[in-house]
TrEMBL record:
InterPro entries: MCM_complex-bd
Organism: Acanthochromis polyacanthus (spiny chromis)
Highest classification ranks of the organism: Eukaryota, Metazoa, Chordata, Craniata, Vertebrata
GO cellular component term of the entry, any: nucleus
Protein name: Mini-chromosome maintenance complex-binding protein
GO molecular function (one): chromatin binding
């Protein structure tokens, strides 16, 4: 697949299938006899076959990395995203007939993969076929870290030459005056987008020019439009993804790489303004949509482009250093990585020991936490989660913030949440349904799977939690205990399962639940903290080990795991022996934690099944942790 093939547009799809399908007379005849003649399936199959090759799909420019005004309208692009909301299905003209005003010649046209029809539509034609499609509101993966974005951008931007050759000269002028244009309203900057009559978007000579014209960089001010990103400070485009088939196979919060036809017609903004103006003249009881709903569902295409899906690839991870396909399809990569995991683990353990101020045991548990993953659910119980409460964190030298910055360099997606009283009382953590705008208003807990959530409880000061604060703390507790978030639908709540790694940094024991608590025992004097942390961070930035650590942590999450019958019997016998002398010394909860630790310990060594040695080692580090917690409890009274 050459770079030029990435410019295939929606009209070219019909042409491509027609020219490569000798068994079909014409698209027109096939659609008249059977609108579902299968041409679109062949188009999708063509692109899927081409995109199976990693080298090929890196040729497709990405909305995440390439400015919108560099991309040719109606061309093939991709978008790495999370499904933030799912709108109601919409109807469109799947097949329609046009009439040439001069020759009166009729021609059947395809309405798929586009937002604006051709000129001269015959609305009375009996050949018109109405079809249905679904719209997803998609945003860039929340909390995706800068190193991930930079790596992915290297794949795409190396193949996209900054050029205004796609756009007319008028458009080129708008790029040069970009700073001035930023302050101008959208309508002033796109005067050609406003039709003078309700039917103008269907056709005269200019309508097709509007449809293929590139928008001017994202120069429209977004201040009037809430892009509904779950996390504050996020950048990148949101996108309305049009889905034509199998939309029931997608779920809210799925992470995808979507390949589709880019639609950025300025006419979309004009149509939205036209709808808004016409609805304001109607009685509110007669209008099907409120003005707020129209604003949210039909935003300017220069800010929220449309992407007509041809193919979507679920993302098991968003680490650009790993193959995008499953590990089973990359046996060479898998075997070479597994062979190095034990040695990389030792290097990472040594590094984390320095980060945790000389505490090697806490470093062991930090590795186990970072590779934990909900691999299954038994009824309501999520299996595999391992929320870690690291208590005893220093409150000097901005230790917790710098600790988070180090984790941010190692995992693909993460978010730092300072649990200050103000944040707890003011932040919206839980997504809420807005019935006026008919959309799901995002919250900070609407995150992609395997996101690392760092809760800094050292920021919590004395004071009173209000109703919002109590609700937020409850939501965090439910997230930790059940790996679910209860979205607020006003009159009821709806559970959405999640898979989020939660690390709680606190001075004493956290007010939130956790699967494991370990109290930090620093070996570095408080006066040397700042110097120690600075040297550690600089060392990591310059280290050749950095990418090894990134690959290691992501790989360990993706590995399968099993326990043989023989080892299961051995574990059961050990549990019985441990309870013989003192039945209260080891509970069923302790056994469950040891099994989780043993599983993560095995995976951290690149082992996909539990061995006797790994089980004994898991018992040993759990004994050390429990002994430390008992000693800390004795020294500090009732606090564990």
């Amino acid at each position: 697949m050459s770079e030029s093939s990435c410019g295939v547009g929606s009209e070219d799809l019909c042409t491509h299938i027609h020219s490569h399908n000798p068994h079909s007379e014409t698209f027109t005849a096939a659609s008249q006899n059977n609108p579902n003649s299968g041409w679109e399936a062949k188009a999708v199959e063509f692109f899927q076959d081409q995109l199976k090759d990693r080298d090929t799909h890196t040729l497709v420019p990405s909305l995440n990395d390439v400015p919108l005004h560099y991309l040719k309208p109606n061309s093939l692009v991709k978008f790495r995203c999370l499904i933030q909301d799912m709108f109601d299905p919409e109807f469109y003209m799947g097949v329609y007939e046009t009439v040439d005003p001069s020759t009166k010649t009729k021609m059947l046209r395809c309405g798929k993969y586009k937002d604006v029809t051709e000129c001269g539509v015959d609305f009375n034609s009996r050949n018109t076929v109405t079809a249905e499609r679904q719209t997803f509101y998609c945003v860039p993966i929340p909390g995706e870290n800068p190193w991930v974005k930079e790596r992915y951008a290297g794949f795409s931007q190396a193949r996209v030459v900054p050029s205004t050759s796609y756009a007319p000269s008028r458009q080129k002028r708008s790029y040069e005056e970009d700073d001035d244009m930023d302050t101008q309203p959208q309508k002033q900057r796109e005067p050609h987008a406003g039709p003078h009559s309700p039917s103008e978007h269907h056709g005269n000579g200019d309508c097709k020019r509007q449809e293929t014209e590139a928008p001017s960089s994202q120069t429209a001010s977004a201040s009037h439009l809430d892009l509904n990103f779950p996390l504050p400070g996020e950048k990148g485009p949101s996108c309305l993804v049009k889905v034509y088939e199998d939309w029931d196979s997608f779920k809210l919060n799925d992470t995808l790489e979507v390949y589709g036809i880019l639609s950025v017609s300025p006419a979309l903004s004009a149509l939205a303004d036209e709808k808004d103006a016409s609805s304001s003249l109607l009685d509110p009881t007669e209008s099907m949509e409120t003005a707020e709903e129209q604003r949210v569902h039909s935003p300017p295409a220069s800010l929220v482009p449309r992407l007509h899906m041809l193919y979507a690839k679920p993302l098991p991870h968003n680490n650009p250093l790993l193959p995008s396909a499953t590990l089973e399809d990359n046996s060479a990569f898998l075997s070479s990585t597994l062979s190095e995991m034990a040695s990389v683990r030792e290097e990472l353990l040594s590094y984390f020991t320095h980060v945790l101020l000389g505490d090697a045991l806490a470093a062991e548990y930090l590795i186990l936490h970072l590779i934990s993953n909900v691999y299954s659910r038994r009824d309501v119980l999520p299996l595999g989660k391992f929320t870690l409460n690291l208590s005893g964190c220093p409150t000097v030298a901005s230790y917790t913030e710098r600790f988070y910055q180090i984790i941010q360099q190692l995992v693909p997606s993460s978010h730092y949440l300072a649990m200050s009283l103000q944040n707890m009382n003011q932040m919206r953590l839980v997504p809420k349904k807005d019935y006026v705008a008919n959309r799901l208003v995002s919250g900070a807990l609407q995150l992609a799977r395997n996101t690392s959530l760092f809760l800094d409880e050292t920021q919590l000061e004395q004071g009173q939690l209000d109703t919002t604060g109590v609700r937020n703390v409850t939501a965090l507790g439910n997230l930790i205990s059940w790996q679910k978030v209860d979205y607020d639908f006003n009159y009821h709540q709806m559970e959405f399962p999640c898979n989020i790694n939660v690390l709680i940094a606190s001075e004493g024991r956290s007010l939130l639940p956790s699967d494991c608590q370990i109290h930090l025992q620093p070996q570095v004097a408080p006066s040397q903290l700042d110097e120690s942390l600075s040297s550690i961070h600089m060392h990591l930035q310059a280290s050749s080990q950095l990418n090894k650590f990134r690959i290691y942590l992501s790989m360990a999450r993706l590995l399968d795991y099993s326990i043989s019958d023989e080892v299961t019997k051995s574990v059961e016998d050990d549990f019985v022996d441990m309870r013989k002398d003192d039945p209260q010394s080891v509970s069923a909860e302790d056994l469950h934690r040891m099994l989780v630790v043993a599983r993560l310990l095995s995976l951290s060594l690149g082992q996909t099944s539990l061995s006797r040695d790994s089980w004994l080692r898991a018992k040993h580090i759990e004994m050390l942790r429990r002994s430390r917690m008992e000693q800390h409890k004795c020294v500090n009274g009732n606090e564990p």
